[in-house]
Each structure stands twice: as C-alpha cells, then as structure tokens.
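ARCHIVE CARD
SHELF: 3
SLOT: left
DATA:
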Amino acid sequence: MKTINEIQDEIIEEFENFDDWMDKYQLLIDLGNEQEPLDPSYKTEQNLIDGCQSRVWLQAELQDGKVIFMAESDALIVKGIITLLIKVLSGHTPEEILNADLYFIDRIGLKEHLSPTRSNGLLAMVKQMRMYALAFKAKQKEHTTGL
C-alpha cells in the first residue's frame, strides 16, 4: 500500500505533464468519469456535503481499520476533484488521514484555478473526509478502551 504522500506525488507528476489548464480540467473530468457510480442508497441528504455549490455525496466506511471513501457529484469537474481526494485518502487509517498534509492541491495549481465557490467546495470535501476519520478514530478508541 502506498503512503498518502506517494500517491500525492504521483498525482502531481500526472498533472505536470500538462501545461494548459484546459488539459488539466479534461484530466479531472476523465478521472471523475472513471469513478464507480455511488450506490443510489447512499445518495441521501445526510451524505450531501454542505458548502458545495454542486451536489456531492460522500460515503465512508471503516474496513479493517482503514477508511474507505465513495462519492459522486452531479458536476463533472467536482466529480474529478472528489475522485482525486478519494485516490489520496481512501484505504488509509483515520490517524493517517487526520495527519495528512494535502499539499498536492496547491502543487497542481488546483486552488488558484477553481472559482471561489468551487474552492470552498473543495475545502468542504476535505473537511468532511477528516470528520469521518475523526469519528472512526473515536469509535476505534471506544472499542479498544471498552467504553
């Protein structure tokens, strides 16, 4: 299993292959299209991320101590962004997710090329993923301390 930083470095390399932002947007859209569609049963109000202009559903589960994220969005570029976040964070422990420095967002120039509302949406997605990690971490602790 690759570390969060190894995955981020791969994404940075992939984006460095393109100089033009139109190509980078296309890469994001392609990534989003490769994402497995989310099971309709997870497309609930409670899984919708607050703060996103478009609709983004995020589902998380803890499997063998690792957080598995699944998501979908009705907007192509946003779907690509959440796909990148899942690629980086899914399959890691709550601890690793909470300690991760998501430097790839700045390094691929994502923040500066997103509209302010999309940028806020990106932050909301990251925040929501960390909230899940925090909740799972608390649950694990409860489980080990027997509270």
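SLOT: right
DATA:
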Amino acid sequence: MSFAAYRGELREGHAFLLHARLLLGVVLMVMVTNGLDQGWSSVLLPVHAKENLGGARDLGLLAAVFGGCALLGALLYAAVGHRFRRRVLFTVAFLICGLPRFVVAAVADGTVPLAVTMAAGGLAAGMLNPILTTVMYERVPEQLRSRVTSATTAGVLMTTPLGGLAAGYLVEQAGLAAALLTLGALYFLTTLAPAVFPCWREMDGPVVGDGVPGVSSSGPSRPSPANAATPPRP
C-alpha cells in the first residue's frame, strides 16, 4: 500500500470518528481515565505499597486481585449483561472502578480495605470493554472497522505517557495523600460524563442499516464523515 493510500484511509477513519457523537465522547472520556489509571498503576499504587503497605508483595497481591476480578466481571457481563441498560451499567461500573480506590488508599490503613475495594473495582472494570466493543461493532460498518479502531486506539492512549509524569509531580510537590485525592476527584468528574451528556443515550438507541445510526443500508458502501463510530479500552 502506498503512503498516500494509507494516509487517505487514516484520514477517513479520523473523519468518521470526529462526526460520531457517542464514540467521540467515549474516546475523550477514556483518554482521560487511561492517563489517570497510568498514574495510579505506575506511581501512586507502588509508592503507597512501599510507604504504607508491605512493599512489592502487597503490590503484586493487589494487582492480581484487580486483574482476576476484572476477568470475572467480563464473564459476568457475558452471562447477564444483556438484561441491563448499557448506559446505566457502564456509568455505574466506571464510578465503582474509579474514585473508590484512590480514596481508600488515601485514608484507610492496611492492605485489606484496599484489596476489597480493588476487587469490586476490578469486577466493575471487566464489564467496560465488552460494552464498548459491542457499541463499536453495532455502529461502525465492517469496511471501516480497522481504520476507525486504529483512530480510537491512538486517541485513548494519547494521555497515557503523561499520567505517570503528572502523578509523580503531584506526589513530589503535594504528597501522596493529596495526589491520590486529586487524581481520584478528576477520575470521578470524568466518569460522570455518561450521566451528564445527552449523546451517551445513544448507547441504548436503535441502530439502522450498516450499523450507523440514521444511515440507510442502501447508502454508499463508504459512509461520509457525518456518521457514527467506535470505542476504546479503559
């Protein structure tokens, strides 16, 4: 494939995404939470484990608890997730897996309270990507999925390198507890987006034609940029 053709397809994917209200909102939201998650996992949690818990042993335990419960959450969603409205479940799950761990790490002593919090957070987090993947496959025509997915993946990872830097700076300037509460507050405000902005109601809305809301199946095989598009991974 020539560079010009590659650039054209890349531009088409970005144009499609920029005109999709729901999925653009998803990208912007997850872009922020991915940066905050990076600050948590690469700086805040290791520093907390070193200073207030049992060091590397407890850090590994907490990571394993979160990961194992996330797998369980994904399986749980596969079994019963269809019974719930996506927007409500997505919002509640993101609120559970976000702010609580930051607050518990800042104010509670010992490993057990944080382990319980991260177990609940992992269970909730495991439901997020299945919801987003379902939305993507419903709303992105098959011939555009690879380029739109590329655009969303790049978008949601944009802030990841900055998350660790920001968290490290906050810990150095304000202390661990203040950094935890600051990033936790930002996480909470970000995860309110599905409950605040009307475009998120499209999560439970009907899909027409090739998977793009409002586009007839008799339309062109390559939709114009005025259509809807894809999700990322939290």
